[in-house]
Write a structure and sequence with these properties.
alpha+beta; Phosphorylase Kinase, domain 1
Length: 411
């Protein structure tokens, strides 16, 4: 077991500015207490005419140290670029930390540089040295299984597996590029899975596409005889450009615990209306995603599973992601975030229609959206299931259980 190597060490934040292929130092994070890390913009960054705030509502372009918002340990837009549970597990294995909880600074500096959005963390402000190692998908698959089993990793493979640690989520994933140089998140099915997560998400993405919801390009391939879902990264642009991304959790100003307890779609919509690039239709677009999640039985729609691009002045919803029908053991279900301003979150279409006004819709308009999404899923289920390569067993497991469960139609 090792001690925490980076706790209380200053961490430098680097960022890619819009239309720039090389990063610049934006500032530094300093620990000022057991549960507080402040951020300070670098003077060189503030003097850069191209500089944008990392996220203006919480880190405006001001001189001096900036405390995180109330209830947060670190600015949420920086936390978005740190690992979630899978990445933390890989780093813990690599450092031999056992059950020791590592510091935010360690997770920043030990995770891969090819992280979500346009931020990275470095030990110094002068030279940018990315932490990017590669290995074959088969080697990475084997390494992921070793992490799940608690077995130590070969250092070289551990470094390569680390490359995907800052993408987020609880399930094993790695980063790969195809022959055309397009970057993908590769989500792995593993021996401990008891639910067909990979094919279920693949059919969720395909159904969303058929329903007119913007989603990333994706496909299922085989590696070592197991399914791998390749999802094209929407935060990368050709030519080495990166797009800033903030999570719904950051938009709400919550940490994960408070977001799970208090987060709501209407509050997130308020932020998107205030700062959004297309506020006139954002209510309808968000409403469609809520209805779709209910239709496919995805109640893992917490605030970190929503995101928006940030360009320094405005927000624009990213393509929808993590659209996975969840296992159902009972008819009753609830969404992770409240659907209406009254706190209602039951996974029922009637709850969506009742909240129509919150999204700038009339009830007849809301019913039309529900009817269109439901009819599209019914009419094109077989097509989507074929595209996702679902077996007959998996189709029976998902259809009218997770997807279009009868309880979603209750009044």
């Amino acid at each position: 077991m090792t001690s925490d190597p980076y706790r209380a060490r200053r961490v430098f934040v680097w960022t890619w500015l819009p239309d720039e292929s090389a990063p610049v130092v934006a500032g530094a994070v300093d620990r000022v207490g057991a549960d507080r890390l402040d951020f300070t913009y670098a003077r060189s960054y503030l003097e850069n005419e191209k500089a944008i705030s990392l996220y203006a509502p919480e880190l405006p372009l001001h001189r001096g140290a900036q405390e995180p918002l109330d209830g947060l340990t670190i600015a949420a837009c920086l936390k978005d670029s740190t690992p979630d549970s899978w990445g933390e597990r890989v780093i813990g294995n690599r450092l031999g930390s056992g059950d020791t909880e590592l510091s935010i600074e360690t997770y920043m500096l030990e995770s891969g540089s090819n992280r979500l959005g346009a931020i990275d963390f470095q030990e110094g402000p002068e030279d940018y040295s990315p932490r990017v190692d590669t290995a074959s998908l088969e080697e990475l698959y084997d390494a992921a299984e070793k992490v799940l089993a608690g077995e130590p990793l070969n250092p070289a493979i551990g470094d390569a597996l680390m490359n995907g640690t800052a993408i987020g989520g609880a399930h094993p994933k790695v980063l790969i590029s195809d022959d055309a140089g397009i970057e993908h998140i590769a989500k792995l099915s593993v021996s401990t899975d008891v639910h067909p997560w990979i094919r279920a998400e693949a059919v969720g993405i395909e159904l969303a596409r058929l329903c007119g919801i913007e989603v990333p390009n994706s496909r299922v391939i085989k590696s070592m005889g197991r399914d791998v879902l390749l999802v094209e990264r929407f935060d990368r642009v050709s030519g080495g450009l990166r797009r800033h991304v903030v999570s719904g959790l950051t938009m709400l100003g919550f940490d994960a615990l408070l977001g799970a307890r208090y987060g709501s779609y209407p509050e997130m919509l308020d932020v998107l209306r205030e700062l959004g690039r297309s506020p006139q239709d954002i209510g309808r677009r968000l409403f469609e995603r809520i209805v779709f999640n209910i239709a496919i039985g995805n109640n893992d729609d917490h605030a970190r599973n929503h995101a928006a691009f940030w360009d320094g002045t405005g927000l624009e919803l990213t393509p929808a992601f993590d659209l996975t029908p969840q296992p159902r053991s009972t008819d009753t279900s609830a969404q992770a975030m409240a659907i209406g301003r009254d706190g209602s979150r039951a996974s029922q279409f009637s709850v969506c229609v009742a909240a129509a006004a919150d999204y700038g819709l009339s009830r007849p308009e809301a019913r039309q959206i529900v009817e269109r999404i439901v009819s599209t899923i019914k009419d094109r289920w077989s097509e989507a299931a074929d595209a996702a390569g679902l077996s007959e067993v998996d189709r029976n497991l998902l259809w009218e259980r997770s997807i279009l469960n009868r309880s979603t139609f209750y009044n």
